[in-house]
Specification:
Blueprint: E1 43-45, E2 50-52, H1 53-62, H2 80-98, H3 102-106, H4 110-115, H5 119-122, H6 132-153, H7 155-176, H8 191-207, H9 213-228, H10 234-253, H11 259-288
Antiparallel strand pairs: 1-2
Length: about 290
């Protein structure tokens, strides 16, 4: 009979220690916190000895989260939300190049948005397939301002601001575009969402006492380009800018004790305003068309 550590037979062979996570791996190294064997894959170097991944995770959960001046949870490391947004836009752009129907399926125009409301958001993940600079400029701008807002506001408020600004850009096209030929022209791009981030950076920087001259110049130049260059939906830029600035103001100026409430109430309120304004415009235009 083969011996084991729990055979209870005096003098019987003792089975070698194995890693709890990987029972097929023998390990004579033990965690300095819990004393359990830990294989090389589960070992983490600590200030004193080796800790297992479970003890490291438990210790991390026990640490109090640090917060920014506006109450956002500070995350060390990569800005994962911004990187994810960039990745989604790039992946969608590749699909635009290889799937002929991809762009037409998700682009936005006011008349298409009336029948298929999801286009208010999906168009923000598309870019002009024949103009590579379109996606390059938007992604560079997103990388330029996104990580700062992600860290300052926290991931949840940041992604909410981005997505709501994207929708606000499409709403801007409904409210400000001429209800004739412009309502049938398709538009794509993350510009509305990016302008929302521009507006948010302006508000947040001012709230924290920073110098806002640089972002004001950036916003002014980009808005001006929308009016002087062809094939640029300046209406989406304005819609995204106003939406992002409004939501950022609610985040930035909320009393510390009510930040969690404002983080929920403010997006819902702004979303309701966007929906009502869009429906009223549709009712007005389509009734008399």
């Amino acid at each position: 009979m083969s011996g084991s550590s729990d055979s209870g037979v005096p003098g019987a062979p003792v089975a070698p220690p194995v890693c709890p996570r990987h029972p097929d791996r023998v390990s004579y190294v033990r965690c300095q916190r819990c004393g359990r064997p830990t294989c090389p894959e589960c070992q983490r170097q600590a200030a004193v000895g080796i800790h297992c991944v479970d003890c490291v995770a438990e210790a991390a959960r026990a640490l109090p989260s640090t917060r920014t001046a506006l109450g956002g949870v500070r995350h060390d490391g990569r800005p994962v939300v911004t990187l994810t947004l960039i990745g989604l836009c790039v992946a969608s752009f590749v699909l635009q190049l290889v799937v002929p129907t991809w762009t037409g399926r998700w682009l936005f125009s006011p008349i298409l948005g009336y029948y298929e409301p999801w286009r208010f958001l999906t168009a923000a993940f598309l870019h002009s397939p024949g103009q590579y600079l379109h996606i390059v400029f938007n992604m560079v701008a997103l990388w330029f301002v996104g990580p700062t807002l992600e860290n300052t506001l926290g991931r949840a408020r940041y992604i909410t601001l981005y997505l709501l600004s994207a929708v606000g850009g499409s709403v801007g096209s409904v409210l400000l575009a001429s209800a004739t030929d412009s309502w049938t022209v398709g538009s794509v791009g993350a510009s509305g969402a990016v302008f929302g981030l521009f507006g948010a950076v302006l508000v947040v920087s001012r709230r924290l006492g920073g110098d806002v001259r640089g972002i004001l110049v950036l916003i002014g130049i980009n808005l001006a380009l929308g009016f002087v260059m062809a094939n640029i939906a300046w209406q989406a830029h304005v819609g995204g800018l106003v939406t992002g600035a409004a939501l950022a103001a609610a985040y930035a100026y909320a009393p510390a004790a009510r930040r969690r409430l404002v983080a929920v109430a403010a997006p819902l309120t702004i979303a309701a305003v966007l929906v009502v304004a869009t429906l009223l415009t549709y009712a007005s235009v389509l009734t008399f068309s």
